[in-house]
Specification:
- The chain is of the alpha+beta class.
- Strands 1-2-3-4-5-7-6 form a seven-stranded mixed β-sheet, with helices on both faces.
- InterPro entries: Acyl_CoA_acyltransferase (IPR016181).
- This is N-acetyltransferase domain-containing protein.
- GO terms for molecular function: N-acetyltransferase activity.
Length: 277
């Protein structure tokens, strides 16, 4: 079944991109060659790194509670921005987990499962649309908790300021929104494998571009290793409040927010209708 889905996605994408290429006359190589070249680079990258100790698979609906438990126990406690805001100690932590749970419903989440069938990692993917920054800003305005309000404000800036939709001439990108690994399973390459497989999933779903917002140095390093290019960065100390004081200042080496992105079909022309079919 999976192979049939992949073949169908490939055929649809190839046909659509051929039409764009024919109209613009910009492609020097057949689309299949671009597809195969990118897939070959991905496989070469996967072979060049340590084998993943876990099984990477698409999340199922019944995985939701375990994924959210992973988020609560690891992301909220250890992600530098969230830890600095101390959101886990506020009643609003439940609101944040609920917000993350909404992303699971898009069905773009991959999980890493160890030999005991325990979920020890997750890459929660979603559509990144032009209006996401505005929606986060509106959510921040409605939020009573000061720490959570700051977080949504920061996220709204990170979504909007890089102008990736304008840069790639698209209304929609694939976004690796949350990448989390259990603390006792880190330093095994699980995060990198989840990222690489997420990019592969994005292509199979028909996305032409992908992004990853990195609020800590560790995720930025993973994005770079996965082949995503840094398109925008801001130092945390430049994010100031009305008194010109930094809103947050995570400890070193987490001094910057970096937004990485990539074209999933390198060499293909940009077009205003690019995105998910």
């Amino acid at each position: 079944m999976l192979q049939r889905i992949q073949n169908f996605c490939r055929a649809c994408l190839a046909g659509r991109l051929k039409r764009h290429a024919g109209a613009a006359g910009l492609l020097a190589k057949p689309v299949e060659e671009h597809f195969d070249s990118w897939e070959q680079r991905l496989q070469n990258t996967l072979r060049s790194i340590s084998a993943c100790p876990c099984r990477i698979r698409l999340a199922k609906q019944e995985d939701g509670p375990e994924i959210l438990q992973l988020v609560q126990q690891n992301l909220l406690h250890h992600e530098p921005l969230l830890r600095t805001l101390n959101i886990r100690q506020t009643p609003a932590s439940g609101q944040l987990v609920e917000y993350i749970g909404q992303q699971l419903r898009e069905g773009f989440t991959l999980v890493a499962q160890d030999e005991r069938a325990r979920i020890v990692g997750a890459a929660i993917g979603k559509r990144s649309c032009q209006w996401d920054g505005k929606q986060l800003l509106e959510r921040a305005d409605r939020t009573q908790c000061n720490q959570l309000r700051k977080l949504f404000y920061i996220w709204s800036i990170v979504e909007a300021e890089p102008n990736l939709h304008q840069h790639f001439c698209t209304h929609c990108l694939y976004e690796i929104a949350f990448l989390v690994t259990a603390v006792d399973s880190q330093r095994q390459g699980i995060g990198l494998h989840l990222t690489l497989h997420s990019l592969q999933l994005a292509r199979q779903l028909g996305f032409q571009f992908a992004r990853m917002n990195c609020t800590c140095e560790y995720s930025a390093r993973i994005a770079t290793k996965a082949g995503l290019e840094c398109h925008w960065t801001v130092a945390y100390h430049h994010l100031v409040d009305s008194t010109q004081q930094p809103v947050v200042r995570p400890e070193s080496p987490h001094t910057h927010i970096k937004v990485h992105a990539t074209s999933l079909f390198p060499g293909c022309p940009l077009n205003p209708h690019a995105g998910r079919p």
